[in-house]
Fold this protein.
Amino acid sequence: MSTITNPFSYFADGTTGRPLINGYLYFGEPDTDPTIEANQITVRSIGTGGVVTEIDQPIRTNESGVAVAPTTMAPFILDVEELSYSVEFQNSQQVAVYTSSSTSSVLPSTVGEAGKFLFTDGETISWESVLPDQSGQAGKFLTTNGTNPSWATVLPDQAGEAGKFLTTDGTEPSWGEGLPDQTGEDGKYLTTNGINSSWEDVSFSSSTAFRTDDELVHSIPVVFPASGRLLLWSSLQLRKGNVGSGTISLNLQGNVYTSTAGQGATNSAICTLIISGNPGDSVTISSVGTTSGSGFNSINHITMVQIA
């Protein structure tokens, strides 16, 4: 809407430039005859206290050329529905003294537009809100999709999400799991099936064997975890007794360790081994000890660590 304000000015007689005394005012669609009722646009009066009332045409002016109410003859502000319109002003004898096929107001009506800013789409001007409606949007931030501004949540709802981390699927943020619950999971390793992470046991057993034969063979089974390889630190001992001299040799997966032993001596061999396999596969690690007397073959202190 556009507002024509004249409480301090008047409508002029186009032939004399003086106030249009007891004149007639007509407003219509652009490029039409506004004196024809079918072409006329809506015109309102804004009275005392901002009361808006739709009024009929023609609108009369008083002896000062100011628009007045038809019954009270009280001056008022004219509020025209359209930004562009045709006009015709007639004198008291209803002779046209000013006409225009298209007239535009400088600004749209400001009635009810408090706090808004002036905007144009390149053809018309209007009042627009500076920000989207803020009701119920506490704690949100202003964003845009490239066309319209809106309020968006800074973070997803945090209720019940203690200990989680912020993640996104490329569109929406959400809270994701960090590590699985560690309670009661001492000594286990972290693994994943490609979707969820979990704690898993490194599966192995260890034991000690005692034999009096010349050749001692002892083995332990190992089961591969869900992913990766295993790094094994093994402390393996071969002992022999009741001899004055001799040697002890240890063969672990092709690695041979030899030690010279005296009576009552204890000989040890330590090795590190990396083995690879498919998840869930089993492998047997064996030690072979050769002595010149009785003795025992021990595989102990086995520690396995998953590596990439």
About this structure: The radius of gyration is 49 Å. The mean pLDDT is 71.
